[in-house]
Structure formats: structure tokens, C-alpha cells
Amino acid sequence: MASLRAHFYDIAVRLAVKARLSGQSDIAAIRRAFDRDTFRPPPGVAFTPGELGGVPGEWAEGEDGPERRPTLLYIHGGGFIACSARLYRPVTGRFARAGFRVFAPDYRLAPEQPFPAAVEDCTAAWAALSGRGPATIAGDSAGGNLALATMIEARRLGLPRPAGAALFSPATDLIGRSPSLRTNARRDAMLRPEALARLVPTYLAGADPADPRASPIEADLSGLPPLLIHVGTREILRDDSLRLAEKARAAGVPVSLTVFPVVPHAWQLAESILPEAHRSLGEAATFLRATLGAAPEAEAAA
Q1: 46 φ, ψ to 5°?
Q2: Bridge partners (DSSP) listed for residue 136
Q3: What CA–CA distance (Å, rounded) separates 65 from 50?
Q4: What gap in Å lies between CA 220 and CA 236, rounded to an integer?
Q5: Are strands 101-105 and 55-62 parallel, antiparallel or unpaired?
Q6: Which residue in the list 120, 218, 235, 276 is annotated as catalytic?
Q7: Which of 168, 177, 245, 286 sits in a 20 to 30 Å window from 255, CA-based?
Q8: Options 84, 141, 180, 215, the catalytic residue
Q9: DSSP 114
Q10: Sheet containing 135-140: order of strands
């Protein structure tokens, strides 16, 4: 059952974001709608600029805790055109509070740097991080797409695979074949199918949407690490997740799938106020620690 806060948050997002994005095609305006520093990061986390594989970004690390922390590459969402590591501090900070040392890359954005620039950046960051030892990967929305693409590229290049991956509402099919794009068009509190349809050519810049690096649902998923997938039942991207889970399981990949009621897209950013966000990030942290074989770390302020 969804919390009362989830219902109120769904309404707030519908009024604050979906209305502003309606019919909008100007990239600067879309970025302003997405790039709103609405939620503060959790306390007790140090955020420092950094670089991995030549890609700039930001490290998030708990100020107290063990010297050796499990590492996580977190890839932010934003439709491939917006958002930043800084905006995602509520999410990376919560993983840091759970005992991870997190790097969030500020990968290149379209339209200035279209596909495959973001895939190349995330893969370069992963190559550098995984070269230091076992690590995990996570991402939401477009960042979930890029996390999958990074794993596919890592396999092709012979790089170490992540121990596990957490994917929040990943965009897995840029061809646009998921039924929920139609059935949830009115129910989704944030995104409209026509808005996504405008973003895809901006990101791809003429590239084939069936390229597995663009639409990971097209890839051979065998050999991927265990996946945790969280998605909202009302999201237009819901079936991108359901189809991914089905195909991954058929390829022998362990999958933990949870479909949350009511919550809007990218609800994890509201971890300070939304029980479902706290639950999602907590379950993801527990899952990723388990894939590494690491002992759980208690949060200072659960």
C-alpha cells in the first residue's frame, strides 16, 4: 500500500513538473524544469569533486565509517540532456550513508554531445573504477539506460563486470515499443510520451535507436550481474523495466523486481520525505552490498 505522502508527492510533481514540460521543446527550458535543486542531501556526507577515466564528477562518502568502503558508480538521470551529479546528492548521499564510496560522473549531455558520448564517458569511468577492485553500478531513468549500456560495453571490451546493478525506472527501449507509453500516458505524474519522443532524436542525433548501447533491451543480456529493478506502476517507462526483467531472467540473470504503487518517476530523489524513496534506496544498498559479499553497515540516521 502506498503512503499518504506518496499520493501528495504524486500531485505535487504533476503540478510542478509535468505542467512545465507540456509541449516544451526548448532544451534550455527543459533543463530548467529538470535541474531544480529541490531536496537537500542527507547530513554526514562529504561531497568532493573528482575525476575517473578522464570524466569529471563528484565523490560522495560518509564522514564516519570504515576506511575501506564498497564502491558504487551512480549514473544520474535527466533524459540524456539535463541534470548533474550535484542535483543527485540526495541519492548518492543516501548510498554514502549506507556505507558506499560513490562516484557520480558528469557525463557529456546532448544535444551538444550526442550519443554515444555519454556511453563512452560512463564506460571510461567504469573502467577506471573497476580497475581498483570489485565495484557496483546503479542509475535511474536515462542513467539506468547508461548503466546497462556501460555493462554491455564493459563485456565487449573485456572489462570487469559489476558485482551487481541497481536500476531505477531505466529507459531500456528508445524505439518506443513498451505498451505503458500509451496506457500510462495520463497516469504518469512527470513524463509524457510525446516529450520522450522529442528527446530521443535529440540524444541519438541520427544514430540507430536499435543499437544496444541506445536501447539495451536489444542487447544479449547473458552474463550480466544480478539486477535490482525498481519502477512505479503509473510510469510510462514501467514496461521498459518489466520487459528488461523478463528478458534478463530468460538469459539466466538473477533479477529482483519491485513495482511500487503511486510513486512518480525518479521518486528516489525525495528520500528525505518519502517512505517509498527511503525504502527503495535502502533495499538497493542492501542488494548491492550482498552482491559484493560485504557486511551491512548501519546508517547513522536510518
Answers
A1: -95, 130
A2: 72
A3: 20
A4: 24
A5: antiparallel
A6: 235
A7: 177
A8: 141
A9: -
A10: 45-52, 55-62, 101-105, 71-75, 135-140, 165-168, 227-232, 255-260
Residue 255 sits at φ, ψ, to 5 deg, of: -130, 130
User: In what helix (H) or strand (E) does residue 81 lie, and over which residues does it extend?
Assistant: none
End-to-end alpha carbon distance in the chain: 21
pLDDT digits (tens, 9 = 90+) for 190-240: 999 988 888 999 999 999 999 999 999 999 999 999 999 999 999 999 999
Residue 107 carries which DSSP code?
-
What letter would DSSP give residue 55? E
> Is 130 one of the catalytic residues?
no
The Cβ of residue 177 has, within 10 Å, a number of other Cβ atoms equal to: 12
Task: Mark residue 182 as left, alpha or beta (left: phi above 0; alpha: psi -120 to 50; beta: remaining).
Answer: alpha
Alpha-carbon span 259 to 15, nearest angstrom: 23
Residue type present at position 94: R
**pLDDT tens per residue across span 88-126:** 999 999 999 999 999 999 999 999 999 999 999 999 999
Contact present, 227 and 161 (Cβ < 8 Å): no
Q: Would you state the cell numbers that stand for residue 286, as one nine-digit string?
A: 542492501
Q: How many CA atoms lie within 13 A of 200 on its CB side?
A: 20
* Torsion from C-alpha of 49, 166, 268, 63, nearest 10 degrees: -40
Paired sense of beta strands 55-62 and 71-75, if any:
unpaired
Active site residue 265: yes
Three-class DSSP category at 85: coil
Amino acid letter, 186 = R
Within 8 A by CB and 6+ apart from 52, the residues are 73, 103, 105, 124, 125, 128, 129
Whether residue 297 lies in the annotated active site: no
Catalytic residue among 265, 271, 276, 280: 265
Q: Report d(CA 266, CA 288) in Å as an integer.
A: 19
How is residue 5 annotated by DSSP?
H
The CA distance from 105 to 55, in Å, is 6
In b/e form, how buried is each residue of 84-95, taking b as 16+ CB within 10 angstroms? bbbbbbbbbbbb
